[in-house]
Amino acid sequence: MKKLLTAVVVLSLSVGSLFADAKVFTEKFKAQVKEAKSKVKMISPQEALKMMEEKQDFIIIDVRDKDEVTSMGYPKWDKYKNMSRGKLEPMLGKSDLVVENSLMVFCKTGARAALAAQTLQEYGFKNVVVVDGGMDKWLENNYPSVD
């Protein structure tokens, strides 16, 4: 009986610490996103659409994973690249991007896009904007997209 009670207590403490770690990780991610958003230019989906309607010269960098792009679609724009956030840095060296390019960064909600934009700035890109709310807000507004 003592062994069973000890096992239950140890298991409870282990599970409790896992949830505590998850909360710490979530809070750390939120803090990183908040910091990134303070260092990059955030624009609304409406501002992004206006830039498209004005036919401004920029490239959309979509940092969602391929399966997200497949399931949600992507903004309708001639200059579009999907570069998953998890592979962004190595993909930059293999891409035709140059630091002079103007970039509009998308993800699902804007969080990963902010982190990616911060990375792009660290790599020398100067004209980078992030669509706040990402594809969720883009689609919510029924803006042009490709399925």
Walk me through this protein's architecture.
There is one protein chain. The strands form two sheets. This protein has a five-stranded parallel sheet with strand order 1-6-5-2-4. The protein has a two-stranded antiparallel ribbon with strand order 3-7. 54% of the residues lie in helices and 16% in strands. It contains six helices and seven strands. It folds into two domains: 38 residues; 107 residues, 3-Layer(aba) Sandwich (Oxidized Rhodanese, domain 1), CATH 3.40.250. Helix 5 links the parallel strand 5 and strand 6. The termini are far apart. The chain has 147 residues and is an alpha/beta fold. The longest helix has 38 residues.
Q: Tell me, what's the shape?
A: globular
Query: In DSSP terms, counting alpha (H) and pi (I) runs of 4 or more, how many helices?
Result: 6
Which strands sit side by side, in order, in the main sheet?
A: 1-6-5-2-4
CATH superfamily of the largest domain: Rhodanese-like domain
Helix content: 40-55%
What are the SSEs and their pairings?
Blueprint: H1 2-39, E1 41-43, H2 45-53, E2 59-62, H3 66-72, E3 74-75, E4 80-82, H4 88-94, E5 102-106, H5 111-122, E6 127-131, H6 134-140, E7 145-146
Parallel strand pairs: 1-6, 2-4, 2-5, 5-6
Antiparallel strand pairs: 3-7
Please give a handful of descriptors for the protein shown.
147 residues, 5-stranded parallel sheet, 6 helices, globular, Oxidized Rhodanese, domain 1, two-stranded antiparallel sheet, alpha/beta, 16% strand, single chain, 2 domains
